[in-house]
Structure formats: C-alpha cells, structure tokens
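Run log, item B.
One chain of 290 residues. Sequence copied directly from the ordering sheet:
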Amino acid sequence: MFAAAVKRVIPFTHPVIVSKRLTSGQVECGFAAFIILNADGWILTAAHVINDLIAKQSHDRERAKYEADVAAVEADARLGAKQRKRRIAKLPRNPQWITNISYWWGVDGVRADNFAGDSLADLALSKLEPFDPAQVAAYPVFRDPTNELVPGTSLCRLGFPFHEISATYDEAADMFRLPEGALPAPRFPMDGIYTRGAITVDETSGRRVEYIETSTPGLRGQSGGPIFDVEGRICGLQSRTNHLALGFSPVVKRQGKEVQEHQFLNVGLGAHVKEILKFLQAKGVTVAIG
C-alpha cells in the first residue's frame, strides 16, 4: 500500500546522528530523523532531538562555575593540601555533564545552527549550511489541513530505528569518529491508522496544540521523521509514543512469583500538519501544500 509513498518520501528524509561525551568520559550515540523542506535548505525535526544541544549550554555554565570554584580553593593559601582536597571533593560535580557534542546531518561537511523551536508542538527548524539543492531529488508536499484527517485513514512513518552505532571520541583531533561500515543507516517504514486528535495544553499560557495519534507506536530513531498518507503527503512529524492503560492486569508468574502485569496499548503521537504549517509560516518558510 505504501510502496509508492515511501519512494516519494525517501529523498527528503534523512538521519541525524547525535554523539555526546560526558564528564565521566562515556560516549553516547543515537539516531533521529529530519526532513529537508525546500531548495533553500530548511530542515525540520522534533524539538526534543536538540535537547542535548540546549542542555550542553547549561552544562557549560555549570562546569565553568565548578572549575572557578576549584581554582579558588586551590589558590587559597590558608588551606593545606588535605583541606583543599576535601573541599574540592564537596563541590558539586555532575558526571553527566555534556562536555562535547556533535550532530551529523545526513552528509559530511554540513551543519545546522540557530534553531527555532516550539517545545509544545515538538518542532525545531534550522537551515543546512552549506546546502546543495541538487543533492535532493524531491521535496515534501504537506497535506492541505482543510482536507480533514478522518479516523481510520492509513498512515505511515519513516525513520531509522533498530540501527545501533557506537561513536568514539578522538582526543588528539578533538572530534567524534563513527565506526567503519556504520552508514548508511537503513530506513524503516511502519504503517498504522489515524485514530484521533490529541490536544496538549500549556498550563501557563493556555495555548493548545494538536497532535495526531496513530494506532502504532513511534520507535527510537523515528523522532523527527515524517508521518504521511498513501499519496506521500506529510500529515505529521513523529514526536513520541504514549502508553494507554487497557484496564486489565493479569496475574503471571515471574521467577517463581505471582505478579500483576499491567497491559498497555502503545500509540504514536506526531505534530499535526496544521501545527507544522502554522509554525513554518510564522518563520517565513515556504513549503508545498497539496
């Protein structure tokens, strides 16, 4: 059913690899997705995909304060070596601070800076620099929001789940390195139906945004990827998975003990196309609507 639609969506759906190194020295790496919106190089992904980038800015300030506090203790001539050591040990130091971070946007040599975000709608917008429009064979067409989605409409999402990658950090070169053969990442389509709309409300402002709910869950690596209909038109952008309690909890045996197992239905949530178009229009970004 979705073979032709997936073929239309592939040219503008790409992986983003997020690599980060922590104060502990641990290196973590994960996949998400983004779409290239038009020939100007504008891209759209989920806002939570850039959470680590925002977190690093906060971590940099905290690390700078820690290092200044350490320097102040070490410079205090009234303290002996053991006293300095004890005081430094008491200073707050988070092993989860992000010291280095890298976003790889589908190809080498491009970057995306200066994100505009909408955390309530889980949308983030940036521009690839440098960008060669000849490298993208087709750009997305967004479903006209006046053409209402009807419950039961077949939808599909595309992203990059089930692909593990272990980056390393090269101290001498001050850069992350991906293992040989780790790319390209295989795309993974997954279909379902539109079940209903889901409203999220900002408790402070009262602002309401609409998500589309799908009968199948989103998977890790699909965040920021497109949710589209059988024509390949974008209906939403994958955000997260909700776990709906089914209301029954059978008793099962686990390691010789009887336990109650709560049952859930996992459904996907994606930013509704009407929210996407509203967001892009506010930022002056033009896309095709059909």
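Observations after the first pass:
- The chain has one domain: 3-289.
- The radius of gyration is 23 Å.
Flagged for discussion on Thursday.
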